[in-house]
Design a protein that fits this description.
InterPro entries: Flavin_Rdtase-like_dom, Split_barrel_FMN-bd. This protein is mainly beta. The chain has helices at residues 22-25, 70-78, 91-96, 107-111; strands at residues 32-37, 43-48, 51-55, 60-66, 80-84, 115-116, 125-126, 131-144, 150-165, 170-171, 174-175, 183-185, 192-194. The protein is 12% helix and 35% strand.
Length: 207
């Protein structure tokens, strides 16, 4: 490709397109469906589109919150949270938990979900979700640009200390990713799609 074949832009000066392509390019992205609790006992459940895994040993996952939201505030207080797998069967409930409500409002109740107590953390998991990670917060970092200017965003990292997996998702000792019908975030606001077996393929990594 030559320069004439490329749409080039500097993010600080605008993208010049109908929609910002950044989110659509970094796709698909797993959904961070995070449950947390504050020191007053109020439970929160919310989806985050900036989420992923970062380390094998110890197993660490993390998500970034734009603005200081209830979820991050809860984790700063209690240092615990649970990640719940968002699936096609739970898409509507997951979307319902994205509503902006007061901290004392329980999103589990709004979405009609079952709050199952954690085993190692004092935070409930989504009973209907086939997979859940109980986590202990390892770090909360305010993000900043290359110029050192702080962004209105916080990255929360947590060590997975307990894992719940529906046995129906395990075959011959191997977790079946597509069997859970996970949904992932695509490009623009509200764009999601399902991971399907026919869309998956395997490549042998070189030694």
């Amino acid at each position: 490709m030559t320069d004439k074949d490329l749409h080039f832009y500097e993010p600080s000066k605008g993208h010049g397109l109908k929609h910002d392509p950044f989110n659509a390019i970094i796709a698909p992205r797993p959904i961070g469906w995070i449950s947390s609790r504050d020191t007053g006992g109020h439970v929160n459940l919310a989806p985050y589109s900036f989420f992923n895994a970062f380390c094998y040993v110890p197993p660490i996952i993390g998500f970034s919150s734009t603005n200081w939201k209830d979820t991050v505030a809860n984790m700063e207080q209690t240092r615990e949270f649970v990640w719940n797998l968002a699936t096609m069967d739970l898409a509507k409930q997951m979307n319902a938990t994205a509503a902006h409500v007061a901290p004392e409002v329980d999103e589990f109740e709004i979405a009609g979900l079952t709050a199952v107590p954690g085993k190692l953390v004092n935070v409930p998991r989504v009973g209907e979700s086939p997979v859940a990670f109980e986590c202990k917060v390892s770090d909360i970092v305010r993000l900043k640009g290359a110029n050192g200017k702080e962004a209105d965003a916080w990255l929360t990292l947590g060590e997975v200390v307990a894992v719940h997996i529906d046995k129906a998702m395990i075959k011959d000792g191997v977790y079946q990713t597509a069997a859970a019908r996970p949904i992932v975030r695509a490009g623009r606001r509200g764009d999601y799609f399902e991971i399907k077996p026919e869309n998956m393929f395997e490549m042998v990594r070189p030694d």
